[in-house]
Amino acid sequence: MLLEGGVNQEDGPDQQQNLTEQFLNRSIQKLGELNIGMDSLGNEVPVLTQQCNGNKGNGSNNSSVTSFSTPPHDSSQRLTHDASNIHASTPRIPGSVNHIPFLEESPCGNQSSSELSVIKPPLGDSSGNLSRSREEEDDKSKKQFVCINTLEDTQAVRAVAFHPGGGLYAVGSNSKTLRVCAYPDVIDPSAHDIPKQPVVRFKRNKHHKGSIYCVAWSPCGQLLATGSNDKYVKVLPFNAETCNATGPDLEFSMHDGTIRDLAFMEGPESGGAILISAGAGDCNIYTTDCQRGQGLHALSGHTGHILALYTWSGWMIASGSQDKTVRFWDLRVPSCVRVVGTTFHGTGSAVASVAVDPSGRLLATGQEDSSCMLYDIRGGRMVQSYHPHSSDVRSVRFSPGAHYLLTGSYDMKIKVTDLQGDLTKQLPIMVVGEHKDKVIQCRWHTQDLSFLSSSADRTVTLWTYNG
């Protein structure tokens, strides 16, 4: 039987050591390609060999890796270095599909910033210290993104996710109800005076025994995963054309607390069916092969509830936690390959949301102290921390072209930060939507300048750009 690292238990000690060293060298080489540091010890977390039937991993509570590396400069990436500054190399292209002209009107400020600068707003202004007043900002923003559809529920709506094809979106609620709605074939921003109800193509009452906290589609769009405070992960085989379930639900019970977030791994390396889930309880991240119905790994290291997950590059995971850290994990090792704290200035804050831009270079976090952090993954340093909101930032997402950062907050507002330009300087921020209660989640459409927002006001709203 092969043990961790590809070592056969029948091999002699010397042969086992050689095989282990070869495995670690290969892992370090692969991590080097991503420019992410790894501890030379290469300690691994236990691999689960049982099916996900409630058994938990026996991983250590201590993460095996906390090292950092600063890779060589790569001018082909979205972030480029110029002396001590970091700039975004994606220029403004007026009229492009990813261009929002109104943000160009917002002042960027000319105050330069150091490597670990923190841009904080003055007291009473959570908009990022823009010169435009709050009243002017709100009035202006109402003309930029307009509400097209509003879905009403009987309880708070926690989770939304667009289908990879863009024609559907899933909604999970505290009412235990799972819905799949149709994205409009034609969107007319001028007809926004009376938002329409979306067409519900699929609905299942009591999909879970508890509130649905998170939803995620597989990259192929044929699996729909949900997590709940009933401690179960469910995976529903789904046909996007007929909007019907194509088989019985898969249920996984490896968690001993609320599942706060889940995500599928993308890319051919994972086969599109590797599910990542995490939350409260033992603070582990679990990986599951949904095709085989089998647990793969239990990744330990966080010391607080895990609130957010994000996957990229086929094997990489970012996790945000109440322990005030973000951890990067590589499933090829599998273990933590970097720890990023939020205590650069002050005491830090719980990380409620994480996202990585399409280049894999820039991390964005949303934190419970109303701040967002931009972090250069390959450079291993914080670019900027700023306060776009006045309460917990529960959702952060990059637009498909990574030109804009969408944020949703418990202050009931949805904002967009313009990332085109020098990321170390003051960033233009605009209000683009608002709910009557806490905003819980926001997600960009896969192609259009549209986004979904879910709220404690018991609604899900579809917003589109009124350009």
TrEMBL record:
Ranges for region Disordered: 48-142
Bias (Low complexity): 53-64
Biased composition regions of type Basic and acidic residues, renumbered to the chain: 132-142
Pfam families referenced in this protein's UniProt entry, alphabetically: WD40
WD repeats: 205-235, 299-339, 344-385, 386-420, 432-467
Biased composition (Polar residues): 65-74
SUPFAM superfamilies assigned to the protein according to its UniProt record, in alphabetical order: WD40 repeat-like
Repeat found in the keyword field: yes
Keywords attached to this entry: Repeat, WD repeat
Superkingdom of origin: Eukaryota
Name used for this protein in its record: Uncharacterized protein
Species name: Cervus elaphus hippelaphus (European red deer)
